[in-house]
Amino acid sequence: MSSSSASSSEEDPIAYRNTRIFPPQFPAPPTCRSSAPRSRSLATNRITTWVSQYEKARSPRSSADDEASVVSDVSSYAEVQLLWQQLKEKRAKVGDIKQQMAKMRQELRILRRRQDEADNAFMSVIRPVLVNPWGLPPTSAQVLDSRMAAMQDLRDQHHFRETDYEALELMVDDEETKLNGLETRFFSLLAAGQSRVEHAASYRATPSEAESGPPSDVPYELRGISADKPSEDLHPLYVELTSAVGDLENAKEEYQDLLYVKEQYEFESKLKWSTGKKTTAEADDFFAEFPAEEARMKDEVSRLENQVESLKQLCEAKKVMRKHMSLRMAYALDPHTRFEELELEDKASILARKKSLAHAVFSEILSQPDHVLAEPEPLTSLQALRAAARLPQDNAENKERQRLAAKEYSIDNLTPGGEAGGRGDLVNRWLLQQLRQSPLNVQLLHSTFVASRSLRIRDLWRWQRDAMYYWWRDSTMGPAEDTPKCITSVDSNDASCPGTPQMSRAVSEGQLGCYDHHPARRESDSAVTATG
Questions:
Q1: pLDDT digits over 2-19, tens only?
Q2: To 10 degrees, what angle do helices 35-58 and 78-131 make?
Q3: Are residues 369 and 307 part of one domain?
Q4: Tens digit of pLDDT for each residue in 213-270?
Q5: Helical H runs in 413-523?
Q6: How many domains does the chain have?
Q7: 15 belongs to a structural domain
Q8: Residue 301: domain span
């Protein structure tokens, strides 16, 4: 019986369990807890193997078999190697800073002990004075001054050392933050098995590049032209010149820092001399080393200036100088350059010379917003139209003002709101508004007309009016848009769609307002002349 139950439990463990549990339960889903340690161990093994293989490859005693072995796909790419080199350098730098901090902590302990000894020596002189009612003898006063000065000097030294130690603490914090970022990138690449560092967030490799990948035996510097190139190619000589200029600027800054430190020490020395105190040993060492250090920095600045000048002449001789340099670079190459200052004219002189905004060539087709120059304040096109309508019509000047005001108002009201006529009509009106507000578009229309028609325009003013008239009557208009909406403005003589000026003689022979049965003529008989 027991053997049969055991065999049944081995054959069907779920049924065997359900017979002993009421109510029967479904089998629990398999847990994935075992996969996490396994994936973690695989990532650790991959990282350890890559690092050991890389260090063996860098070693001079590595054999050919070790170099030929392939650990993983990621170990063949130079991006990971570059991260590893940066990681090692950053760790070495952090280690050096920590060694300096340890040495400075030892110096601080020694200074604290000496400071305690100086305090005790000072108090040993003060205590007898406190209990002696006869005052302080002259010898004791001299001893008191000397011990007071020694105690103050030790306090100053301790303060300077603490300041330097705090600066090192900030530096090591910054370097450790950078080190953590490098470690995260490096170990993430190795653990995930990625093969490429993304140099830009928007860059994505093509499928062929992702499949092939860079070969393992080709160095990073020999992989050809990178896809992430700068907008302007720089010659190696100019790059060398840029580096030399940067070194020169750094050398000048170091020299200025040296002079600044000298001023600080001189100020402290004068202050201590005025109070009867001695200068610190650090200040004495600085003044002793200052002449040699100043001479060295001056020689370095002079050498870099000569190098920059020679590289500049070489770049100019080979014509590899950058066309558009930054102001800082241009000033560094030629400090005596005086940049030209542009003086803008005042408003009165500009308005005295430009009394009208009419275009010099296409004054009829282009907008002429003279209403923005109105006094005492600018006007809108509607306000200018209302003001012109109130003028008496007894002279030609007022009529011209009314015509121009109606023209500007019609141009401004080509596109506002959604009028009936369909989307094509809206686009057509928008294009017309862009044309009448852009001299470049009008020049393009003029050039296209002359080039496509092989005609010579004899009357430019009539051609502009014909262009506005045929804007609504060419082959681009649909059947539903064949009959344009006409407006007739009193005094403006615009008998067509908004923004269309008075018709010329070439198109004024038909009946105004009835365009359905009037054949559109292609060109004016008086505005253009055939050349062939």
A1: 444 444 444 455 555 555
A2: 90
A3: no
A4: 444 556 655 666 666 655 667 888 888 998 899 999 999 999 999 999 999 989 888 8
A5: 422-436, 439-453, 460-469
A6: 2
A7: no
A8: 75-197+231-318
